[in-house]
Structures are given as C-alpha cells and as structure tokens.
Design brief:
alpha/beta; Dihydrofolate Reductase, subunit A; 19% helix; binds NADP nicotinamide-adenine-dinucleotide phosphate
Length: 166
C-alpha cells in the first residue's frame, strides 16, 4: 500500500523495562494516571486494535471512540465496531486530518510501526513477567514531551510519559 506516510497515525503503548507489554491477554499493571492519559488522548478519535486486545478490554467497544478491530477470520464482526480483515483495510480508514490511534497489541503495533508518525509511550521502569513483548528502537524518533512520575502511591515503580514524533 502507498500514500500511508501522509496519514495521521499514532501509536500509544505502555512498555516495561524488559519490553513486556502483556500477559494472559491482560495488562501487567494498574496505573490510573496512564488510563486517564489514554482516555484523554484517544477520546473522540479512531482506535485500531487486534482481536486479542479488543477481547481484553473490560468495557467494549471503548466508549466515545470509533473502534476498529482487525481479525483474519473473514465474516467475523464485533458489535459497535468496524471490523477489518487486513492491515491495508485498516490503513484505508485512516486519514490525514484526524489522528488515528494504534492501541495494540504486539502483533498490531509491529505491523503499524512504519506507518506511524507519532508515538505516545508510557515507559514503566520495572521488569514484569510476561508473554507479550515489544522492543522499539527510538533512534528514528524525536522526543517532544517528557513527564516523569516518581511518586505514584498506588505503585512501587516509577514511570514516564514520553511523546515522540517522526
Ligand atoms: N501495554 C500496552 O500498552 C498494551 C496495549 C494493548 C495490548 N496489550 C497487551 O498485548 C497483548 C495482546 O497482543 P497480541 O499480539 O497477542 O494480540 P493483538 O495484536 O491484540 O491481536 C492479535 C490478533 O489480531 C488479528 N491480526 C493481527 N494481524 C492481522 C493481520 N495482518 N490481518 C488480519 N488480522 C490480524 C488476529 O486475529 P485473529 O486471530 O482473529 O485472526 C490476531 O490473532 C495482551 O496481553 C494485551 O493486554 C498491551
């Protein structure tokens, strides 16, 4: 597929120190500030996810957002969502004007990385036991925002909200 570099595609993800992002189709932590940030950033926009991530959501579809779910199972549909059957089909739904968010999981992040021009990272400064990992090379990215959270009373680790652009 061509033209995609022009599209307004962002990745949003939380990654542990050991590159872990999930286990047993669940997140590895509960960070209220991260959930609030995720909601604030993605609200009113398109969110694109793989089937596993969709099934992992406690509330689905995610309210106040246009939910796009990707599956290989032709004909499968998810209520209240747009279901697509390939990455190209998902890319066709993304526009230049409106920001579209890739919200996981690992398989979807990896396939969209080259199409994204903005990256919202929550960097969790701890190792977690996991079955799903994603290691990203940020050499091609420019850091434009950084907020370090060092005193979250609900968690025994620190984390940072980092925003990168290409
Ligand atoms: N830390 C974070 O920020 C974060 C965010 C999101 C998710 N996660 C975690 O990531 C884990 C899930 O990741 P995952 O990689 O297992 O699953 P996933 O990416 O959410 O979904 C994988 C599924 O998407 C479909 N798919 C993927 N590529 C496709 C393609 N090219 N064409 C058609 N369908 C395609 C397939 O569905 P079918 O099997 O139906 O074909 C595939 O099995 C969970 O633990 C979740 O909690 C973490």
């Amino acid at each position: 597929m061509k033209i995609t570099k022009m599209k307004n595609i962002s990745i949003i993800v939380a990654i542990a120190q050991n590159h872990a992002i999930g286990k047993d189709n669940k997140l590895l932590w509960h960070i209220s500030e991260d959930l609030k940030r995720f909601k604030r950033i993605t609200k009113g926009n398109k969110v694109i996810m793989g089937k596993n991530t969709y099934l992992s959501l406690p509330v689905r579809p995610l309210p106040n957002r246009e939910n796009v779910v990707i599956t290989d199972v032709l004909g499968e549909k998810f209520e209240g969502c747009i279901t697509v059957y390939s990455i190209d089909e998902a890319l066709e739904l993304c526009s230049e004007k409106e920001e579209s968010f890739i919200i996981g999981g690992a398989s979807i992040y990896k396939q969209f990385l080259d199409y994204a021009n903005k990256f919202y990272l929550t960097k969790v400064n701890k190792d977690f036991e996991a079955d799903t990992f994603w290691e990203v090379d940020f050499n091609d990215w420019k850091l434009i925002e950084e907020e370090n959270i060092v005193d979250d009373p609900q968690n025994d680790f620190t984390y940072s909200f980092l925003t990168y652009i290409k």
